Amino acid sequence: MTTNFIKNIADKKITEEVHHAFVRYSLGEFVKEPFIIKKSKKDISIKAGFEYLNLLHAFLGGQITGDVELEGVIETVRDLSLLLSKLSIQFEEEKRFGKKGKKYVLPPQAVSASVYKKLVDEAKGEYLLFNISAAGARLKVKSKTTPKLGSATNDFVQVKLPPALFPAFRQDYLFDIDVDFTQAIIEQTYFINDIGIDKKLLEKDADAARRKALRQGEIRRKITVDGKLFKEYKITFKV
Fold this sequence. Notes:
Layout: H1 5-10, H2 16-21, E1 28-31, E2 35-39, E3 44-48, H3 53-61, E4 67-76, H4 81-86, E5 92-95, E6 102-112, H5 113-122, E7 127-134, E8 137-141, E9 157-161, H6 166-173, E10 183-196, H7 199-204, H8 206-212, E11 214-225, E12 228-238
Antiparallel strand pairs: 1-10, 2-3, 2-10, 3-9, 4-6, 4-7, 5-6, 7-8, 8-9, 10-11, 11-12
């Protein structure tokens, strides 16, 4: 199963994760941050906006082996103390500044690849604002605090992959690029044209109605390869 919600939409596989990716969007046009991939003989460099943070953690969790060094923060409205303790992950609890919920501060520590994967899988709905490094792969976040809604998040998450992981990454994230390249830039704009809300649920629980609403629209996807336009097309969706 791919970790890339855009590929799932293109494949007409609307999962819970795909639906969750669009919950915070209202009606309108939303220009997203560029997804930039640079290849060299040494490694593959990836820069992406905030919305790809948990997805790239999930991708790495399914690929890397050996020990994983991690440090950073998880922000959430859930109590994660039991999960973190069960996984033997060191943490401290703090309040989120000006926001609901808690901040779990993870000091620098080493965990197994299986523990990292379980953490990402079981906390995938939270804000995984931590850095990791393992066996030639690493992920770094620009900030240990969630960005303000609507603010630009260019290069919020930065990843380095060893060449051995590129085929798997390409299958998930570069599914519509069938040529070799040194640099590829993927630019996307979301158009939300309709939001179907359960009116009865809206009267009882407005937040639940918002989260369960079906959003309909299209994604316009523009791909530039080595400085030249490679492909530009749209993907329609109802999620």
